[in-house]
Structures are given as structure tokens and as C-alpha cells.
Design a protein that fits this description.
Blueprint lengths: L10 E10 L2 E8 L7 E7 L33 H7 L7
Antiparallel strand pairs: 1-2, 2-3
The structure holds zinc ion.
The site of zinc ion (ZN) has 8 residues, from loops.
Length: 91
Amino acid sequence: MMKCPVCGSRSFVRTSEELTPTVRQLYYYCGNIACSMTWKSMLSIVAVISPSGISPEFRLPHIEETKPPGHEYGQMSLLDLCRDGGDDPPA
Ligand SMILES: [Zn+2]
């Protein structure tokens, strides 16, 4: 159960839609009538703990790392800077 991020009241899933077999979009509403905030949330499988007995070869889809804006000019992402210890970007 997700609490309302504004008032902390109990919230409810009104509906949901399947985006992919491993990702679902949930539509929440706050149960506090004075607040009544609504929002969207994502539900996804992040890891397989135990493989399926029917199809043990199932693997989660690989999410490709996206390139940050400016990478074509040699600009490094903060993630790259943290990984490489902050060295100068390649010329
Ligand atoms: Zn609320």
C-alpha cells in the first residue's frame, strides 16, 4: 500500500494498465476526501528470485543505458565521472 505523498492517508489503486508484461502503470487516489489527490505510479518486476517452473529460461528485458545530453560533444555524465574518479573527458 502506498500512502498519499501529501497528507499521508491511505491511498487506493483505481485502475491500472499493462505497459509491458513486466511493467504496469497504476492510477492512485488518496482516501482522504479533503485531499483527494490522484497520481500515477509504476509497478515493475526488478528481479527474478526463483525461476518459473513452466518457463525457467525467462529473463527480464535488458534496459539499455541511455546517453546523457551532450555526450556527442565529449561531455561526460555525472555517473561516468563518479565511476572514473573525475578524470578529464577524452578530447
Ligand atoms: Zn492525500
